[in-house]
Amino acid sequence: MGYLFMFSGGIVCPWDQVSFFLFIVFVVYTMLPFSMREAIIASVLTSASHTIVLTVCLSTTADHMEAVVWQILANVIIFICGNVAGVYHKHLMELALKQTYQDTCNCIKSPIKLEFEKRQQVNKYFLISSESVKVRLE
């Protein structure tokens, strides 16, 4: 879709659709249910494909190659920063999810443990009372 927007406008510029592809990178890390590895692969492929297509397209049509090279380099730096921010966000979210899961498990285990201890205490009480009855009968 980004390529459709990029090539349907007429003149292709080195900064075309960088924000759209950066948005895709953030969505992969924040919204889609990918593992960290899958998210990194998808984001790097997205960034690399945009950079390669834009470089190939502009290398045949650009008049001032030095400016294009600097802009492509700036795009690569933007994509690297976006990927680093996405990895950091995904890592923090995975840690928070793991902690929430542990807290939920502890909340479920706590009443079960209390019920088990209560049963043990009741059984111990009945055992002591039955032994006292036995002692009295003897």
From TrEMBL:
Segment forming the signal sequence: none
Keywords: Lyase, Membrane, Nucleotide-binding, Transmembrane, Transmembrane helix
InterPro entries: AC_N
Domain Adenylate cyclase N-terminal residue range list: 20-123
Keyword Secreted attached: no
Pfam family membership, one: AC_N
TM ranges: 6-32, 39-62, 68-88
Matches recorded under PANTHER family: ADENYLATE CYCLASE TYPE 1, ADENYLATE CYCLASE TYPE 2
Name of the protein: Adenylate cyclase type 2
Organism annotation: Characodon lateralis
Organism classification: Eukaryota, Metazoa, Chordata, Craniata, Vertebrata
Gene (name only): ADCY2_3
